[in-house]
Amino acid sequence: MRLGVDFGTTRTTVAQVDRGNYPVVAFDDDNGDVQEYIPSVAALDGDRLVYGFRALHLALEGAPHLRSFKRLLADPEVTPATTVRLGNRDIGVLRMITGFLAHVAQSVRTGSSVSEVPAQEPLEAVIGIPAHAYSAQRFLTLEAFRDAGFEVLAMVNEPSAAGFEYTHRHGATINTRRRRVLVYDLGGGTFDVSLVSVDGTSHEVLGSRGNNLLGGDDFDEVLARLAAAQARTSPADLGEVARQSLVDSARSAKESLNPRSHWLTLEVAGEPVTVDVAHYYEAVEPLIASTVTTMEPLTQRLDDGTHGLAADVAGLYVVGGGSELPAITRQLRLRFGRRVHRSPHSAASTAIGLAIAADPDAGYTLRDQLSRGVGVFRERESGAVVSFDTLLSPELRVSTSQAVSVSRTYRAAHNIGWFRFVEYTTTDDEGVPRGDVLPYGEIAFPFDPLLQGLGSSVPLADVEVRRTEDGPMVRERYTVDPHGIVEVSITDLGTGYSLTRSLGELQD
Q1: How far apart are CA 54 and CA 353, in angstroms?
Q2: Which residues, 6 or more positions from 158, have their beta carbon under 8 angstroms from its beta carbon?
């Protein structure tokens, strides 16, 4: 069975490949009602870790729980060994996410709208990832899906997948005059935007921007604060259980909004309060403005001079569960005009696009961008000077079907090379990384053949770095695999001595 799986911050959605159709998979919740998602929640049931609807039910009863744990993967310090506190237990982040995805897999097999899937039949999936996820987040996500029992066919950036869904649903808007689509993807925990060029079923990402720390959760927190203020308190003063109940109430109230809503009713510590919708929209205006600011490097290419979209843009496509707030589409239409479209399945658009990518008969292809740069700080002049080299630019073309490699060859000038790698979003005029800069640890490489022969018996950190007159020829190769994970390989071309590491696994 082939699937598209969108592991979301607040909800996880799945779409099925079914003879040219891509229905969203439905699941039974604890009340026997049908929902087109599984809550991304983990909770303790006694000593047992449970997930999804059962975890959500226990969370509402005050059990130790964790929501939005996908956001943990965006933490620059997360590693395969990172743990999170749940109740009185420390649980590995990778173990928790793997357990949740195993629950998703089991739910698809035995508790969903899909006919029961035999255990021996593989769940082949194309999975989504935020466009600006770093190598560690991509590596941990891929490991978790594989360990959970999915056979991962590809990992696709979430807004790129939504671009597939746009073409599938709104293909008539694509013509020889209008071939570009701007995908605005606001999920529960992240915001991404991509500019996609479409030629039939061929898609090419022309540019991408994002914010891994902005999503629908932040809109819920704003509403929770407004409701608490109406009750003359604050979320922090309510205690953890009551605070989380208020945030849940805020999320439900937000999702009930329609363009004609004037008031929202929530419970604060068991007491009903009302919030003026206009006041709420005013309070979230800075969050919406932040998404527009993030888009500016792309929209500057599209502006027709009247604050609308250029003639060759088919539309601005609004997707993601966090984008269902009417104020978002309203503000985007004020800025960009009538060609702003919200997906009728905004919360499931990415999953549908991923399912299209999983369908070999659909014939959809994608050329994407790396979306974040990779560079290295090197020591020069026996360690007296540090310089920065850009290795892979954020605009590097990558593929979901084959690896892309970049190599450089040079003569080493020192007995030891120290490579301190970072991933970044932009550089300044002098080539120094700016914006989100994420260190990825370091590799120490012995250029001196004598040091190569010592293996690990002598730590390179204890060896003085010195210049050499006749160092070896060295090749560095940087490979971006089809999942967007960067691998580093350094080789002494004379002796054949080589080190290979994945940036997703490097640790400081």
Answers
A1: 28
A2: 6, 128, 129, 130, 131, 185, 187, 190, 192, 320, 350
Which 3 state secondary structure label does DSSP give 409?
strand
- For residue 114, what are the CA distances in angstroms to 2, 55, 484? 12, 22, 30
Higher-confidence residue of 441 and 477: namely 477
- How big is the CA angle at 116 (ends 115 and 122), to the nearest 5 degrees? 105
Taking only the tens place, the pLDDT of each residue in 247-292 is 888 998 998 999 999 999 998 888 899 999 999 999 999 999 999 9
DSSP class of 348: T
Give 359's strand partners: none
The pairing of strands 313-319 and 180-186 is: parallel
CA triple 452-453-454, angle to 5 deg: 95
CA R_g for the chain? 24
SS3 272: strand
CA triple 92-97-99, angle to 5 deg: 95
Say if residue 101's pLDDT is above 90. yes
Q: How many CA atoms lie within 13 A of 104 on its CB side?
A: 35
pLDDT of residue 40: 95
pLDDT digits (tens, 9 = 90+) for 175-209: 888 899 999 999 998 999 999 999 989 999 998 88
Q: The tokens of 8 are what?
A: 């979301």
Cβ neighbours of residue 257 under 8 Å, at least 6 residues apart?
Answer: 264, 277, 325, 326
Beta-bridged to residue 154, according to DSSP, are 126
Task: Note the pLDDT of residue 388.
Answer: 86
**DSSP secondary structure, 122-180, as one string:** -EEEEEEE-TT--HHHHHHHHHHHHHTTEEEEEEEEHHHHHHHHHHHHSGGG--SS--E
Rounded to the nearest angstrom, the gap between the alpha carbon of residue 239 and the centroid of all alpha carbons in its chain is 31
Tokens of 290: 């932040």
